[in-house]
Predict the structure.
Amino acid sequence: MIFRQLFDATSGTYTYLIASRRGGEALIIDPVLEKVDRYLQLVRELDLRLVKALDTHLHADHITGLGALRDRTHCVTVMGEQTKADVVSIRVAEGDTVDVEGIALEALYTPGHTDDSYSYLMQDRVFTGDTLLIRGTGRTDFQNGDPRAQYDSIFNKLLKLPSETLLYPAHDYKGDTVSTIGEEKACNPRLQVKSVDEYVDLMNNLKLANPKMMDVAVPANMQVGLAQEDVAHREWTLDIAEALALIGNPDVAFVDLREDKERCKHGVIPNSLHAPYADLMQHVHAGGMLHEFARLTSRRLLFYCAFGERSAMAARAAQGAGLGSACHIKGGINAWKKAGGPLGT
Ligand SMILES: [Fe+2]
């Protein structure tokens, strides 16, 4: 396994680059905007293909690299379903897995630092974001933070993991890089409380200054979406009403770009083709399955995904590959459901 812990000294942020093998698919956790060039250099040097970029929560102390990585590698962006970020490709809930080749991360909903905080369990290690830090815990005094919820996330979820589980946080300001669940249980001063009320008291009396970057970072991180306004003005973006009008039209092929587990969970538009986004590039180029299908049947490809991010990138790629009529559904299956569009399994 390739496992790299990268550090942004300005914000004290740890970013993790993970892949199961050289030459394979990679995932990045909590990337920092200013470090994107460095990540991409490392991705190239290790001969990796970045396919997913994930934030454990909406950060207040740095601007996320999610949008820049998506724009430069066409990777899929991932956050928790509670996030207020405008457009991310996949929104996970408790128990969902985030998969790349040879690697599965299990999402644990661990609110408290923010209401969109998730931890991710991967075999012998857990990425705890700002929920549980080394000898500390993430502050709970803004962004819908809640010390009571954090106590529950830590004591009833994270500390229930095997004590030898390695703990990799999103931040450290002292230079520590890794701990274990057992070590934190024994040595983390914030965890030496006798009750939830004692923990709440402790957290409510920290009297911390707001992070320097907060006024810049929070609004920026809520707008990581693929320049949606720009994309919306293109003639190849259909709104829901336009898409609904094309149901049953023999000249149009609906193409679902989501992964199998998203399809099972949220349903599919009846009679859709399935072409997972991860393999899209090989399908839309000349000689690829979708390209030949569109050419031979003269049908218009109408891409959709969960929220419209992957489909916008797919429509752009298909256009670039010469499929001039390809288009996508703005807002994806999320908007389709809200509009009462028909769903099958
Ligand atoms: Fe944070």
Observations:
- The first strand starts at residue 2 and ends at 8.
- The chain has a mean pLDDT of 93.
- Residues 57, 59-60, 113, 130, 138 surround fe (ii) ion (CB under 6 Å).
